[in-house]
Each structure stands twice: as structure tokens, then as C-alpha cells.
Amino acid sequence: MRWEDRVGANVRRLRRAKGLSQEALAHEAGMAMRYLAGIERGEENPSLAFLVKLAEALEIHPAQLFD
């Protein structure tokens, strides 16, 4: 599995576990919802800065995005 696919699946799983919509998580992380949707589909190649923003919004350690 490509790392983009793994990260995307983990973001989707963690977002749903927190009961957040894509819109809510994107707003909390300071990114466009379309960009977040692309990350979840494994279509985007997010920078480390964006991954840290997502982790902070999800209240997790960034390494959990790669588990």
C-alpha cells in the first residue's frame, strides 16, 4: 500500500471515530475540504506541515497517521 493511501485511510478512520465531518476537520486544520477529501482518497501528497495540522486537529500524535 502506498503511504498516501495508508495516511488517507487513517485520516478517514480517525475523523469518523471522532464523529467529525470532512468540513469540520478541514476547518479545524485550516485547509480546504476538497484538499482533505483528496488526502483521504490518497490522491494528494500532503506536506509534513499539513499532516501535523491534521494530527493536532484530531488530537493525536502525527506518527499515528502512518500506523
Describe the structure.
InterPro entries: Cro/C1-type_HTH, Lambda_DNA-bd_dom_sf, TransReg_Diox_bact_type. Keywords: DNA-binding. GO terms for molecular function: DNA binding; DNA-binding transcription factor activity. Helix content is 63%, strand content 0%. It is mainly alpha-helical. It has one domain (3-65): 434 Repressor (Amino-terminal Domain). α2 packs across α3 and α2 packs across α4 (48-58).
Q: How many DSSP-defined strands?
A: 0
- Name the overall outline: globular
Order of helices and strands: HHHH
As residue ranges, the low-confidence spans are none
Strand fraction equals under 5%
Largest sheet descriptor: none
What value does the Rg take, in angstroms?
10 Å
Please, what is the CATH homologous superfamily? lambda repressor-like DNA-binding domains
Per CATH, the architecture is Orthogonal Bundle
Write down the domain tally.
1
CATH topology annotation: 434 Repressor (Amino-terminal Domain)
The helix content is 55-70%
Q: What is the level 1 CATH name? A: Mainly Alpha
Say what oligomer this is: single chain
Number of helices: 4
The end-to-end span amounts to 12 Å
Q: State the secondary-structure class.
A: mainly alpha
Estimate the mean pLDDT confidence: 96
GO molecular function: DNA binding; DNA-binding transcription factor activity
Organism: Brevundimonas diminuta
Pfam family, one: HTH_3
Keywords: DNA-binding
Topology at a glance:
Elements lengths: L2 H15 L4 H8 L3 H8 L7 H11 L9
Question: Summed up, what is this model?
Answer:
Helix content is about 65%, strand content about 0%.
